Structures are given as structure tokens and as C-alpha cells.
């Protein structure tokens, strides 16, 4: 008989894409395990959806004030309409002031503002309504205010959130509901409050599953879009995004940023002599060596054909040379005939080379790679403007 945990795990698996890898499950729990590109695209999506909801709330919130006007007495409806107009103005400011910039903290601020506005409106209106003796019709309309936390809780389902993020937001909404109950303690209808609170807990569980399902599909789609299917490294288009992001960060904090362009030596001879399948096998092995050897902060991308780029943030020229030397000493893989694979490398660094853009930094690494290749291959070129073409690399270990 399967255990309850196995049954729940099986049910959860049906909500997740089959392409989701086992090692990616932790990304459903914690946001700090996400890649830079996934974080950027998720943050952009979250802010865009916040702005969409802010627009809808800005339009619908004052319209509902007509109902207040018809069912509540004069002092009460005026106060409620005032609260609605203030909430409408806050939603309009949220719509106008928050723009997607790829920052996760910016997305957090946008989501916090989106849910804080109706939460404050709920607490204020709930406290205000508790001080009035309502008629049968107005009591029915007032009961609708009690369901606002349920609407907010259900709204979490449209965001691709991790379990931790969803738990924090849901807990904040439940806490706001408890605060509203405390402020109207003397007049609170406890059975109704308990029923609504229990329903909010159930909705929180459903929205958490919906958010995780969205996030899982997003993880798979982003991985498939940004990775080179042959080598597992980043594809060129996504690599250019990473380079620009790292460039912006390096400029903002005035830190080093090194870029190395590697071109495998005599690779076309492999395809001609052993066939393209053998060439693909060499590229796959080379990609595995790079990903296994380099630091977790470095990014590897396939620039095209047999050319690869290594992006090393917070790294000056000397540190980058040490990283590349260690990488070569451990070996880059082997050719089909058993001889070691070698590469010609051009290295450029933002601060030392005084480059003005990420494109200029990349172009400089490309020129130096061609200098290294022209001067005998299996070399690392860090200059060349003075007529030198860098230094020979250490002989890689035999792959026989």
C-alpha cells in the first residue's frame, strides 16, 4: 500500500511539467536558487501582472461606491466612498510608478503595494462598518466586505511564486484579517469570521499549488529557451543578456568583469576526419568540462560553432588568468584520436582595458582570441596591442 506521502507526491507531480528536473525542485521552494535570467524574467512578469491588477482595481473600486451610496446611510457611505477614492488613487500611482526593470526586489515592492492597498481598505472599512447598526439590505452589502481577503488570497494564484514567497504573502493577508477582527472585537460575528478565515486557509493552499505550477512551467520554458541543447551551456542570445546584466552590475559597483572567448583548435578537422557526430560528442564533453571546472558565479555560453564565452563577474585580469590556467591544467576534453583538446583564448577585463560597453569588451576578447590563434594556438592572449600575442598555455593532460 502506498503511503500518504507517496500519494501526495504523485498528485503533486501531475501538476508539474514532466520536463522539470529533480534538481530543479528546490527552485520551487526558494527564490535565491534561481538563475539570473530566470529571476529577471520572473520579476518582469510579476510587475506586469501587478500593473494589470492595479489597473483593474483602479477602475472597479470607485464603481462599487455606487452600491455603497444606495444601501448605506449618509455618514457611512461618505466615509466608504472616501476610502475607495483613496484606494483608487493609490492603485493609479502603483500603475504609473512601477515599471518592470528585471529586479526581484522591485517586483517584491510592487506586489507588497498591490496587496497592502486593499488590505488597509479592508481593515478600515471593516472597523467602520462594525460601529453601525445596519438594516437587512445594508447588512448583506456589508457582508461582501468580509470576502475581500478571500479575493486577495485568490489573487496570489496569478503570480509565479516560490513556496516561501507564497507563504509570506498568504500569512500577511491572514494576519490582516486577524487584525481587522481584533479591532472590531466587541461586535464581531465569530461564527462568520471563523468560517471565512478557514475558507481563506483553504484558498491559500490552492493558490500555493497554482503559483508553484506556474513557476515550474516557467522554469522549464526559460531553461529550454536560454540553454544550448547540445552542450548545456547558455545559448548566445541569453548569454548576451547575462553579459549586459553583469556589465551593468560591474559599472554600478565599480567591480571587475572579465570575459574570455575560447575557440577550439583545429575543430573543423574533427568533423572532416571523424564526422559531425564525433564533433558533437567533443563539444558535449567540452561543455561538461567547462561547467564542472569553473566557479558557480561564472557563466558559460556557446557563442557559435566551436567558440565559447566565459563571463567572470567580480574578477580582475590576474584572477581571470588563474581561473583559466586551472581550467586548462584540468583538461578541456579529448579529440576522437585520443589527443587532448586545446583552445585559443582571448581575455579582456573591463577595468584594466577601459572598455565603455559590454559590446566593446566582447569585441576586444574576440580580437585577442584571433591573435592567440594566429600566433600558434593553445595560447592565452591578454594584450596584443604592443605586438605580443600572450603566453602559451600549459599542456593539458592526455585524454588517451
Automatic annotation (TrEMBL):
- Annotated ranges, domain GGDEF: 255-385
Membrane-spanning intervals of the chain = 50-71, 77-97, 104-125, 137-159, 166-185, 197-222
Which PROSITE patterns does the entry mention? GGDEF
Name any GO cellular component annotation.
Answer: plasma membrane
- Kindly list the GO molecular function terms attached to this UniProt entry: diguanylate cyclase activity
Gene3D superfamilies per UniProt = 3.30.70.270
Entry superkingdom: Bacteria
A family per Pfam: GGDEF
InterPro entries in UniProt: Diguanylate_Cyclase, GGDEF_dom, Nucleotide_cyclase, Rev_trsase/Diguanyl_cyclase
Q: What is its EC number?
A: 2.7.7.65
Enzyme class per UniProt: transferase
Query: What keywords are annotated for this sequence in UniProt?
Result: Membrane, Transmembrane, Transmembrane helix
- Has keyword Disulfide bond? no
Region of interest called Disordered, as start-end residue ranges on this chain: 378-400
Q: Coiled coil: which residue ranges?
A: none
State whether keyword Transmembrane helix applies. Answer: yes
Query: GO biological process: what's one of them?
Result: cell adhesion involved in single-species biofilm formation
This chain's protein is named: diguanylate cyclase
Amino acid at each position: 500500500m502506498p503511503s500518504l506521502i507517496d500519494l501526495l507526491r504523485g498528485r503533486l507531480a501531475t501538476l508539474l511539467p514532466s520536463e522539470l528536473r529533480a534538481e530543479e525542485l528546490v527552485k520551487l521552494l526558494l527564490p535565491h536558487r534561481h538563475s539570473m535570467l530566470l529571476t529577471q524574467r520572473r520579476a518582469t512578469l510579476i510587475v506586469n501582472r501587478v500593473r494589470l491588477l492595479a489597473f483593474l482595481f483602479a477602475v472597479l473600486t470607485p464603481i462599487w461606491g455606487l452600491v455603497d451610496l444606495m444601501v448605506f446611510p449618509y455618514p457611512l457611505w461618505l466615509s466608504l466612498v472616501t476610502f475607495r477614492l483613496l484606494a483608487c488613487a493609490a492603485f493609479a500611482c502603483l500603475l504609473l510608478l512601477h515599471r518592470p526593470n528585471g529586479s526581484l526586489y522591485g517586483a517584491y515592492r510592487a506586489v507588497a503595494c498591490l496587496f497592502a492597498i486593499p488590505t488597509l481598505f479592508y481593515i478600515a472599512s471593516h472597523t467602520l462598518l462594525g460601529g453601525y447598526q445596519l438594516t437587512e439590505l445594508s447588512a448583506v452589502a456589508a457582508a461582501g466586505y468580509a470576502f475581500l481577503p478571500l479575493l486577495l488570497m485568490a489573487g496570489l494564484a496569478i503570480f509565479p511564486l516560490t513556496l516561501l514567497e507564497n507563504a509570506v504573502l498568504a500569512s500577511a493577508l491572514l494576519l490582516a484579517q486577524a487584525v481587522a477582527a481584533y479591532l472590531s472585537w466587541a461586535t464581531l460575528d465569530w461564527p462568520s469570521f471563523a468560517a471565512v478565515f478557514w475558507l481563506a486557509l483553504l484558498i491559500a493552499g490552492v493558490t500555493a499549488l497554482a503559483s508553484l505550477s506556474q513557476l515550474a512551467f516557467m522554469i522549464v520554458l526559460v531553461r529550454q529557451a536560454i540553454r544550448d541543447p547540445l552542450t548545456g551551456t547558455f545559448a548566445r542570445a541569453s548569454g548576451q543578456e547575462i553579459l549586459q546584466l553583469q556589465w551593468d552590475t560591474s559599472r554600478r559597483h565599480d567591480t571587475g568583469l572579465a570575459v574570455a572567448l575560447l575557440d577550439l583548435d583545429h575543430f573543423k578537422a574533427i568533423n572532416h576526419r571523424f564526422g559531425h557526430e564525433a564533433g558533437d560528442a567533443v563539444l558535449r564533453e567540452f561543455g561538461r568540462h567547462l561547467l564542472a571546472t569553473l566557479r558557480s558565479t561564472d557563466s558559460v555560453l556557446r557563442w557559435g560553432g566551436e567558440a565559447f564565452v566565459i563571463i567572470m563577474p567580480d574578477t580582475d585580469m590576474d584572477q581571470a588568468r588563474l581561473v583559466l590556467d586551472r581550467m586548462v591544467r584540468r583538461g578541456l576534453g579529448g579529440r576522437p584520436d585520443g589527443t587532448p583538446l586545446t583552445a585559443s583564448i582571448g581575455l579582456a577585463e573591463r577595468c584594466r582595458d577601459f572598455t565603455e560597453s559590454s559590446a566593446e569588451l566582447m569585441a576586444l576578447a574576440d580580437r585577442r582570441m584571433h591573435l592567440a590563434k594566429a600566433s600558434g594556438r593553445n595560447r592565452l592572449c591578454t594584450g596584443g596591442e604592443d605586438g605580443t600575442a600572450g603566453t602559451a598555455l600549459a599542456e593539458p593532460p592526455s585524454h588517451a
